[in-house]
Structures are given as structure tokens and as C-alpha cells.
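[job 0412] stage=complex_fold ligand=NAP status=START
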Amino acid sequence: MNQPLRVAIIGAGNIGSALMGGILKAGVTTPDCVFATVKSQEHADDLARNYDVHITAGGNLAAVQNADVVILAVKPSILPSVLEEVRWGLREDRILISVAAAFPLSEIEAQIGRRMPLFRAMPNIPVIVGEGATCIAYNDLVSDHQRAIVEAIFRAVGVVCFIDEDQMHAATALSGSGPAYIYMVIEALINGGLKMGLSHEVSTRLSEQTVLGAAKLVRETMLHPAILKDQVITPGGVTISAVHELERHGLRSMLISAIETATRHSRSLGEKLVDKLKQTNAR
Ligand SMILES: NC(=O)c1ccc[n+]([C@@H]2O[C@H](COP(=O)([O-])OP(=O)(O)OC[C@H]3O[C@@H](n4cnc5c(N)ncnc54)[C@H](OP(=O)(O)O)[C@@H]3O)[C@@H](O)[C@H]2O)c1
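[job 0412] stage=complex_fold status=DONE, emitting C-alpha cells
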């Protein structure tokens, strides 16, 4: 029988602990094979109350040393110092995954000073409830088997799409930031219901379920949303009067522009981060 996968999670915060919970629930590995780290002892104690895994405050090098898969889930600003700390514990035949936003694969390689199978993932916050959308890019050293392992890890917390690294900014703008746009839509629907006299509770339940149900119908029917929208519209009916109002205010155009702007902003932040890293390395 194969040994369970040994997984190190460096930075078990929002994303790291969601991944930890997801892979344990999905049986990707077993609790005794998970080595998680955080910064503060208080957070480590808190996690230890909920998970039966190895958890330490610090101790990153020890955590990665025997791991088959290392997941780096710390903030991008501290990733260089964490890479410096763990680089000698990383083995070239193992898998390294970074979820740090805007941090390119080439910079991770530069920081660890050698090449190894490397993945860059952009999950989104619904990974916390197992309904995330994660985009993943990887370098040319990755085998099909390693790709399948990484897919299984992120599928434990939602949907996975493999993309080229140069599409990461667009993915960040769409699905990374996307939950914020949808929360705004849900908030507005709730307010609409309130304005028309529905209670807070009824308005909230109807709004959240309408978004959830509509998304599920897109997935399960695999029909284009325009076709599904048309199915709700009756001639001279209620829905078309609201759809006309949304078109008048440019709802679709607004969302397209939002993603275009966010993609540009992500690219510019990425370029600034790389410039800063290069300056630091040159010193
Ligand atoms: N949140 C999102 O929607 C999202 C989406 C896509 C990608 N990401 C990326 O995911 C990464 C984590 O984001 P997050 O929202 O999960 O942040 P977070 O909740 O702040 O988690 C970061 C964790 O790193 C730990 N940490 C800090 N310094 C450390 C060190 N030296 N060694 C070990 N652990 C250390 C922190 O420990 P303490 O708790 O003890 O301070 C914290 O638990 C970021 O790089 C971000 O760009 C986030």
C-alpha cells in the first residue's frame, strides 16, 4: 500500500487551513501526515484544538524536510524570508506549491536558487466552504503524476482550472477577487427586497439562494447563461422590465470593465513586486 502523502502547510491562515481541512475531509492524506506552521503560538494552539495534525509556531524548515508536498500559504511580502528559511529542506523530487498572489514561478525559483517541480495556485476565499475556484500554473519540471496530486489537493476545496502563468492576472481579477463582486450583488438584492418591504431574514435567504441556485443551474445544464436568462423572461412580463433596467445601467458592461481594470492592476502590482525583489537580491 502507498504511504499517505506527507503535506507541509507553511502559513495555515485562511487559505492554508481551508486547504488542510479540505484534504483531510477528502482523504487526500491523514492527519498524522500533515505538518502545518503559523507565526504565533496562540494561533497554533487554536488550530491544535480543531485539527489532529502536527502544528507548530515557526519551525518551517522542520515541517518541509520530510514533506512530499509543500504548500506555501503565507502573505507574498514574507514569502522571500520563508523561502530563505526552507530552501535547504526542499527536495528536487518533491512538489512545491505557492498560493502567494502575484509572486511568479521564476521568482520562486530565483529565491530558492535551483529548479524543482513548482506550482503557482490562485484559490479564492470560498475554499473555506469547499466551493473554491482555483487556477493553477506550473513549470516545465512537473510530471503528469505530480499534476494529478496537486489537482486532487485543490479539488478537495472546489473546482480547479489549469492555466498558463501569463493568464494568472486575469484569473486573479475574475475568480480571486470575484467573490467581492458577487457579495455586492447579493447585498444589493437584499437591499432591493428590503426596499420592497421584505424582512431582513426573507430578503437574505432569497438573495443568497437565488445566486447559489442560478450558479448551480449554469453548471448542471451546461447552458449558456443567456439561454437560461431567456427562459425566465416572458413577453411583457416582470423579468424583462427588470432586465431592461439592468441593461440601462450597464450591469454587464460594468462587470466586464471591472475585470479588465483588476487584471491591469494585478499585472502592475506583480511588476512592482518583481522589481522590488530584484532590487533586494541585487543588494
Ligand atoms: N484570502 C484570499 O482570498 C486569497 C486568495 C488567493 C490567494 N491568497 C494568497 O494566500 C496567501 C495567504 O492568504 P490568507 O488570506 O490565508 O492570509 P492569512 O490568513 O493572514 O494567513 C497567513 C498565515 O501565515 C502565517 N505566517 C506568517 N508568518 C509566518 C512564518 N514566518 N512562518 C509560518 N507561518 C507564518 C500566519 O500566522 P499567524 O496567524 O500566527 O500570524 C497566518 O496564519 C497569501 O499569499 C495570499 O496572497 C489569498
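The chain has two domains: 7-168, 177-249.
[job 0412] exit 0
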